[in-house]
């Protein structure tokens, strides 16, 4: 099934004959880089049937048609999906520049976290994508983490694996990867594998749990530390901890970094009601960006004025 009027560039047979390279194993399946004989490269997610909780064909197809209709510059588009009795595949555009996880943690020689301007750019891109999912489609990402944020052809941050968590059966957090668990909002964590259906339903991801995961991701960007290593501190102590991990000597950079951290702290509130909406988060980030641009213009203006006086 091709999504949203996509042209049928290849057949299922061509897809199955493609050379496949394992890219990674996620929460509900494995992802492969598939090179088709028509010189097209795709990313194919093979879903683990055991993690889908017996989702019916009709429910799966209806949900994937909705997900496949999402189109935004900060979402990796779902191009097609396939389902048979024991096989379910999702086909996305292949992103050659890797993930934000690799960008932040992949180089062991990295002496310090990303520059705060890079953190702001990635955060704004992610917030754009999440805000679109929440506002335009009333859906939920449900599995936001740095490995699910890929870098596009222009190094824009693009979300993947979005809106699939509602199809999966929750697993006890005690068995999960500690970093993946750290992204989960307190109200969505499942502590027992014997949860009743209504209990499971209550613990499904929400827009506010996406906001929580975004806050964790932002701290990860600012510190360069995986979520399982984030310290639980009071806001003032958190600010000192993050500053101790960064080597930015510029006072202005510290100010903007502090503003970004304040956004992260607001998003990571244990109470869903106290967290901002993703649209509010996006506005906060855009205000920081506007202030950054204004500061740069002031510095440039002052340099020009000084140069003219010296002349």
UniProtKB/TrEMBL annotation:
PROSITE patterns for this protein = PROTEIN_KINASE_DOM
Please name the InterPro entries in this protein's record: Kinase-like_dom_sf, PRK1-6/SRF4-like, Prot_kinase_dom
Q: Where is this region: Disordered?
A: 171-205
Coiled-coil ranges (or none): none
Cleaved signal peptide residues: none
**Top-level taxon:** Eukaryota
Q: Which residues form the Protein kinase domain?
A: 17-293
- Tell me the GO molecular function terms: ATP binding; protein kinase activity
SUPFAM superfamilies recorded: Protein kinase-like (PK-like)
Q: Protein name, please? A: Protein kinase domain-containing protein
